């Protein structure tokens, strides 16, 4: 989170809590308007989404003011991945997907399928394709049995926006980022309008 630009504080809100909780400061009126702070799993993410839902602003001080230390016994490590993903999915559905008629999901791998399964049936019906780079998957279909949906898996360069990207950044030695740049150029796509990162 420390390396995020001002713009990325908003654009990456569905990937992570873009401002680390122990470093927050705000007026007490803002705190109260968001309903205060609740000691529950993912409390930082839930508070962040409540703040953004009310039109709240995010900012960061450019120089270090605190030191935040990760350790094995911290509470955030005990939160199951699925619980965090569920909260993030609910937020992107209400803030973004509710405004899109249809969309695609980039990745029919673990994260893309997990995201799809957490979507409401209404949002699942909006998914028109899974975008993929894996030649073994391209040209096949993903079957959502409960809704009897058959969703095509298409080469990412053939999938127009809007898109939710379920591929982690900085984990492929630049391959994914290069593919994303090619896709953005082809469709003149803008982050936060035509696509959002989820993983």
Most strands sheet = 6 strands, mixed
The side-by-side strand order for the widest beta sheet comes to 3-4-2-1-5-6
Give the overall shape, derived from the CA principal axes: globular
How far apart are the first and last residues' alpha carbons, in Å?
14 Å
Q: So what's the oligomer here?
A: single chain
The low-confidence runs, each spanning 5 or more residues with pLDDT under 50, are: none
- Give the structural class: alpha/beta
Mean pLDDT: 89
How many H/I helical runs? 7
Radius of gyration: 18 Å
What does this structure look like?
The structure is a single chain. This protein has 199 residues and is α/β, with parallel strands linked by helices. It contains seven helices and six strands. The protein has helices at residues 6-11, 28-33, 43-53, 81-95, 110-118, 121-126, 175-187; strands at residues 103-106, 127-132, 141-144, 149-155, 163-165, 195-197. Strands 3-4-2-1-5-6 form a six-stranded mixed sheet. Strand 5, helix 7 and strand 6 (195-197) form a beta-alpha-beta unit. Helix 3 (43-53) runs parallel beside helix 4 (81-95). It is globular, with a radius of gyration of 18 Å. The two termini are 14 Å apart.
